Structures are given as structure tokens and as C-alpha cells.
Amino acid sequence: MAPSNLWIDVSAPWRSARVHGTGRRTGLTFPMNNDADNGAATGGGPGRRRGGHLTDCALLGPGGGAPAGRDGTTDTGPDVLVLGGTGKTGRRVAGRLRAMRLRVRVGSRAAATAPFDWQDPAGWPAVLAGARAVYAAYAPDLSDPAAPERLGALARAAATAGAERLVVLSGRGMSSAARAEESVVAALAGTGTGWTMLRGCWFAQNFSEDFLLPEVLRGTVSLPAGEVAEPFVDLADLADAAVAALTGPGHAGQVYTLTGPRALTFREAVAEIGWAAGREVRYRPMSRSAYLSEMVARGASRAEASAAMGTLRETLDGSCSDPADGVLRAVGRPPRDFSEYVRRTAASGVWDEE
Ligand SMILES: NC(=O)c1ccc[n+]([C@@H]2O[C@H](COP(=O)([O-])OP(=O)(O)OC[C@H]3O[C@@H](n4cnc5c(N)ncnc54)[C@H](OP(=O)(O)O)[C@@H]3O)[C@@H](O)[C@H]2O)c1
318: domain range? Predict the structure, then answer.
């Protein structure tokens, strides 16, 4: 069964366990798994992007930036602001930008250098000041009814602050994410600030850094997903695409649907994880009504549970099963396979027996 705090303080299924950062296992952190994740230019990392963007990167300062300081922050070159920069996607994006020796500011509620709260627009101009490119991962979740308005307001504030680029983490198949995209596009029309949409499908890292990790560790992953197939995207690829859009040419006005190269059912995904982790993990398909009841029983409000179910219904109805070409278009190489994610995540030990 899922942990007792599952679904508390949630507005969407992948917000529920709040396990990123520290997990149920005391002191457990969720490090990025290896070079593919931490931004070092391996395989298809940002250093080998389409057309060698690093060399003609519009955002690289003269001399290619300065050596990183003790906290990994560099002190020359233009600013890239990473909102949600301590989260699953943002910390990968920030890590890659630092590896490129660009000056990076991480924005989140806990960030010392750029304290940022989506619920406090009055504080946004100070955080945006000086940023030439902005990555925005909305929190708590794109299914939040306030997401379209807040992302639109952020886009206006970014344009007012003089940002040249806004790269938005969106969601494939989510009507709320589509509304958020429209809001950003409308806000930036005629401003001179370019936008790029990263339409992510289900993150592979939901199994290792978010709400599905406790279920993997307990041996049963329950979802109202039936036998629908999902082309899980590896966040190493999503981060590479974000960095390309933040720093390279030709990404303004592009919508990238980011998926893996292969669709798997949750049963197949869980079987791969169990095999690689050397533990028994089974998939338990649930009806939507039973899943919704479980969410409410675990402490979610009816509104939160309904929002979560809306996302599940939209993203797991089979309409998102086809792999898309967003990674190839954004970074010039095919996406990483789910098996690669599973291999390196198993090697990190996050799925080891407690
Ligand atoms: N999981 C999926 O499969 C999936 C698929 C497509 C799209 N998405 C979207 O991805 C987004 C989440 O991105 P993520 O997974 O990279 O993030 P995450 O791991 O959930 O981390 C959340 C980040 O946002 C910050 N944050 C939380 N509340 C905040 C607030 N009120 N104001 C400012 N910052 C706040 C957190 O830092 P602090 O706590 O310090 O503020 C942290 O940096 C959501 O919009 C979700 O809809 C998810």
C-alpha cells in the first residue's frame, strides 16, 4: 500500500508523495544518477547538441564564462533564472547550465539568492531583474486552476524585466497545460520575449524521485492506468532540451513534445524496474473511482482528488501513447530509452531494499 501521507497536500497525482528532496527513508536524497543526469556532456548531453550550439550560443559571454565559485555559481556572463531550480527538472537544468559555466540563479521558495513564490507576484520583479533567459516549472502542478493565470503573469513580468527567452515546462495531453501555454503566448505577443514550450509526458523519474517511489519500494504500484502505454520521458532528455532552448538559436516559438522512444504499459515499466532493482514489484491496475476514493481516504480534498483524476484521465486515455519527436527536434538526437533510465537508476541504489 501507499504511505499514509500519500495524497495529503496534493493537487495532482505526481505532487502527492512530496518525496523529492528527502524521502520517507530518513535522510534519503535523490541524487541525479550519473553524467547523463548531472549535465556532464555525455552521449547526447548538451555539449553535443544539434549544430554545436555551444560554440555559437547567443547567451555565452565573452570567453565562455568564468570558473564556478564554491557554490557552483559563476560570476560573469548573463543570468539564466531557473524557477523550480531545486526540483526534478530544474536542478538538472541548473546543473547543465553551470557545467556550461553560465551564471545561473535558482528560484524557489527556499532559494537564498532568488526567493520566489508563485503565490507572491509582488516578489517576482526582483527575482527576474537581470535575467536574460528564464526556465519555468510551475508548482505545485499544471493542473492547479491558477496555473494559466500565474504563468501568463510570469510571462508579462519576464518581458517587462527584459528577458529574451522564456522556456516553459508544460504537460502533454493536459487541458490545463494547454490553457497555460495559451496564456503565456498571449502575454508575450509583441513583447520581443521569445517562448518555447516543453510539453513533457509522464516523467520516468516519477518512479524514483516522486510519488511512485514509495510504491516501488513497497512492491506494488497502483494506478488507474489499465494497460495503456506511456512513452515515459527521461528527465536527462528534458533538461537537455530545456538547456538547448535557453541557450541555443532557433527555439523561439517552438513546441516540443518530449517523450521517450518507446511506449510501455505501467505493467511493463514496473517489471523492468523490478528486474533491474532485483526486487519484486507488481502493477495493480485500479478503477478510477477506487483510486479517487483512496486519495480522499488518505487526506486529499475532493477538489484536489478531482484535479488529480482529471490529469490521470486525460493523460492515460491512450491519446498520449505515441512517442513524439520533441527530443530529436530540440537537441538533434533521439531520446534515451526507458531501459537506460532504469539501469542507471538501479545503479544509484534508490530502489535498493530498505
Ligand atoms: N511528473 C510528471 O510526470 C510531469 C509531466 C509533465 C509536466 N509536469 C509538470 O512539472 C512541474 C513540476 O516540475 P518538477 O517535477 O521539476 O518540480 P518538482 O520536482 O515538483 O519540484 C518543485 C519545485 O518548485 C518549487 N516550488 C514548490 N512550490 C513553489 C511555490 N509555491 N513557489 C515557487 N516555487 C515552488 C520547489 O522548491 P521550493 O520548495 O523551495 O519552493 C521545487 O524547486 C509541474 O508543473 C507538473 O505539472 C510533471
Answer: 13-348
